[in-house]
Amino acid sequence: MKISKKLYSYYLIWPALLIYSIFFVLPALTGLFYSFTDWRLDRESIKFIGFDNFERIFTDRTLLLAIKNTAIFAVVTVLGKNLLGIALAVGLNMKLKSKNVLRAIFYSPSILSVLVISIVFTPMLRSDGTINRIFDAVGLHSLNQAWLTNPSIVILTVAAVSIWQHTGFQMAIYLAGLQSISKEYYEAATIDGAGSWRSFRSITIPLLLPAININLMLTLIGGLKVFSEVFVLTGGGPGNASQVVGTIILRSFGEGSWGLGTAVNTLLFAAVTIIAIPLLIFMRRKEVSE
Amino acid sequence: MYLTQTSFYNQNVNGFTTIENFTTGAIHMNDKMKKIATGLLAGVMTLSLAACGSNNSGSGNASATNNGTGNSSNTGEKVTIELAISKSSQDSAFVAQDLLDEFEQKTNIKVNLQLLPAEQTATVLQTKLAVDEVPDLIQYNLASAVTDLNLERNFEILDNEPWVGRLLNKDVLSANDHVYSFHVSQDTGMQGVVYNKDIFKELGLAIPNSYEEFLAVCEKIKASGVTPVFMPFKDNWAANIWPAAAFADWAAKNEPSLFDDINAGRKKWSDVPEFATFLQQQYDVYKKGYTNTDILSDSYDMAVGKFLNKETAMMFMGDWLIVNVAEKDPSMHLGLFAIPSSDGASLGASPLGGQLFIPKKAKHMDEAKKFLEFIASKEVAQKIVDAQGYVSNFSDVTTPKLPEYKQEIVDQYITPKKTVLTTDAYMIVDRSELYRLLQDEFAGGLDPAGVLKAWDEKFSQLMKDKGAEGF
C-alpha cells in the first residue's frame, strides 16, 4: 500500500506564492534596479548611473572598514559559536545528573531579546564595569580594556557578546545530531581499542557533519547579516570603528542616499549567496550516511 | 478550506476503499473544485489585506463629513484643510482643539489633523510631497525642512503675508533670505554651558569669559571633589554642542560669509585653523581630567541625574536640559553661559523648531494662509505666547514673565544681541557623520585636523549627491 505524498494540491501554494512575490520578490528586484541609480531624497528624477554606487562602496574608507568588520565578525562568530557549541553539546551529552538544567541554562540567552542583552552588557563592559573589576580582583589588571570604546577591539567585543548569546542555540542542534549517532559505533570502537579522542574524531565528527553543515550555514549567514548586536551595543561607534555592512545600510538611508543604500544591500545579498551556496555544496559532498 | 474538507468527506462516503484510491482520486475528481477553492482563498486573503489598507482612510473621511454636516450652521461652503504634524508634537499650541474650533467658527474652515508616527515623520512627509498627496499645512522644524524636505522646491514663500511686517525676528523663520515658515515665538532654545549656580556660589566662582578662565574654574571645581564637566559622548551629537557654537561665534566675528562660501564649495572646513583649535579645546577639557572618566560609555539620559545628585557642575548642552532638571526638582538653580571658546563669546542659538509651513502644492492655499493670519492676530498670538511662556516674535504681542534662567538669558545675551545661530543652522546636509567623527576624536582615532579633513570629504560627497553647485 502506497501513501501518496500529494495529500494537498499544489494549487494551495498560490496565495502564499502571490504574497511572497508581491512582498519579497518584487521589492528585491526593484531594489536591484535602484542600486544602479542615483535615487536620493532630494532628487526630482532618478537617473541610471551604472556601477557608480558600487565603485563608491569600494573607495569609501568607512564602507571598506564596514566590510572588514563584517568579515571579522563573521569569522570570529562562526568559529566561536561552533567550537563552543560542539564542546558544550559533547559535554552535556554525557551522563550528568544536572545535564537538563545545564542545557536549559546554556540555551536560555538565545531566547532573550538583543536589546535586553545590550542593557545587561553595556554597563558590564564599561571601563569601570563588572568585567574589568573581576580582572582587578584576581590580579589581572593588565587585561583591563575599554571594551566598547576602544576602536581596535570593539568589533571583537560585539562578536563575543553574540557568541555568548547564540552558542546555546548551536549547542541544541549539535545535541540533536549527537543523539542520532548509534551507541554501537562507540562500543565497537572501544573494543577495537580506540581512545575518546580517536572516537570523537573518527565517529562523532563524520556522523555529526549534517549538524555541522547546518550550523555553519546559519552562523555564517547570521554573521554576514549582523546588524542588531552592533546597533544596540555601539551604534557603529566609537566614531565608525564598529560599523558593519548592516549599519552602513541604515546610515546611507538616513543620509538620504537611497540608491547607495540599496547598492550596499544588493552587495550584501550577493556576498551571502556567493559565499554560502558553494560552501553548502562542498559540505554536502563531505557528508556520510550511517 | 471548508470546501476542500467537505469534498474529502464526500469522497469517503462515496465508497473509495483503499487509501491510495482515496487520496489520488480525491485530487483527480476535485481538480476544478480545488482550483476554485484555492482561487477563492487567495482572493479572500488579498481582499483582507486590501481592507486593512483602506479601512483607516474610510473611517477618517466618514468622521470628517459627519463633523462637517453637524457644524454647518455657518453660511457658505465648508472647506476642510489638512494639517500634518508628528505625533510627538501633538501638544503643540497651534493644534489645540479650542483654537481649531474658534477658527472654524470664525471662518467656516475646518482643520483636520493628520498625526504622523514620530519615528517616521520625515519619511511620511517626503513620500506625501513626492507623490503630490500634500497636506495644506505641515508643522516641522525649519532647519530639518531644509535638509529633509527640500524646502525651496516644496514650500511656499511667505514674504508677502500680512503678519510678516510685525515680526521682530524674521531670521528664525527664514531660509535663503525668504520667510518660509510661521511661528509666534522667537525663543529658539539656547546652547552653551549649563552650570549649577549653587556650586558656583559656594566656591565663589564667576562666569568664565575666556578659555583660560574656564580651565581655572574647572580646576577649582575639581579640587572641591565635584566633576567639573559631564560629557555623555556615547551619544555622539553631544560632542557637537561646543564646536557648533564656537565655529559660528568665530565666523560671525571674523568672516561672516564663511558658511555661504563653504556651502558653495569655495572654502573648506579645514581652511580655518581656529576650528581645529576649538576642537582641541574641548578635547583638552577631557584630557586634563575635568570630566567623567568613561565619556564614551556615558549617555545623555544620565545627565539629569548627574545634576540632581550634584555629581557634576557643568555640561555643554542646550537649555532644554535646565527645563528637564527643573521638572524633577524645581529647587535646582541652573543657568547657561556661552561656550568659552574665545574671549566674550556669544551664546549659541539653536534653529527654532515647530514652525508651520505651507506646501507649494497645497490644495487649499488661501485657507491655509488664513489659518496663519488667524494665529498671528494680536489676541490669539498673545494667548498662545502667555500660555506657553514664549519670547514673543510680534511687535504688538508682549512676552510674559519668564522662568529665572530664561530671563537671565534674555537680559545677558538676547537683549544685548550676544547670540549667534549655531553651525547647525547653516548645514544643509545630514550631520550625523560629523558627530561620529567628533566622537572618534575622543576615541583616539582622529586628531582635530583629521576630524575636519574627514568631514570635508564627507561633506563634499553629500553636497555633490545633493546636486549643490560648486561640488
Features:
heterodimer, A: 290 residues, mainly alpha, MetI-like fold, 12 helices, B: 471 residues, alpha/beta, D-Maltodextrin-Binding Protein, domain 2, 2 domains, six-stranded mixed β-sheet, four-stranded mixed β-sheet, 19 helices, 12 strands, 49% helix, 11% strand, globular, disordered N terminus
Mind sketching the topology for me?
The complex is a heterodimer of chains A (290) and B (471).
Chain A lengths: L12 H22 L17 H6 L3 H32 L6 H9 L6 H11 L5 H8 L16 H26 L3 H9 L4 H29 L3 H6 L11 H10 L3 H29 L4
Helix pairs in contact in A: 3-7, 3-9, 4-7, 7-9, 9-12, 11-12
Chain B lengths: L1 H12 L5 H11 L1 H40 L8 E8 L10 H11 L1 E8 L4 H10 L6 E4 L1 H7 L2 H4 L19 E2 L2 E2 L10 E7 H6 L8 H13 L3 E3 L11 H14 L3 H6 L9 H15 L15 H6 L3 E7 L1 H9 L5 E4 L9 E3 L5 E3 L7 H12 L1 H11 L15 H11 L4 E3 L10 H12 L4 H19 L5
Parallel strand pairs in B: 1-2, 1-3, 7-8, 10-12
Antiparallel strand pairs in B: 3-11, 4-5, 6-8, 6-9, 6-10
Could you describe the 3D structure shown?
The complex is a heterodimer of chains A (290) and B (471). Chain A has 290 residues and is mainly α. Chain A contains twelve helices and no strands. Chain A has one domain: MetI-like fold (Orthogonal Bundle), CATH 1.10.3720.10. Chain A has helices at residues 13-34, 52-57, 61-92, 99-107, 114-124, 130-137, 154-179, 183-191, 196-224, 228-233, 245-254, 258-286. Chain A is globular and about 75 Å long. The mean pLDDT of chain A is 90. Chain B is built from 19 helices and twelve strands. In chain B, a hairpin with a 2-residue loop joins strand 4 and strand 5. Chain B is globular and about 80 Å long. The chains are: A mainly alpha (290), B alpha/beta (471). The interface between A and B is large, with 41 and 44 residues.
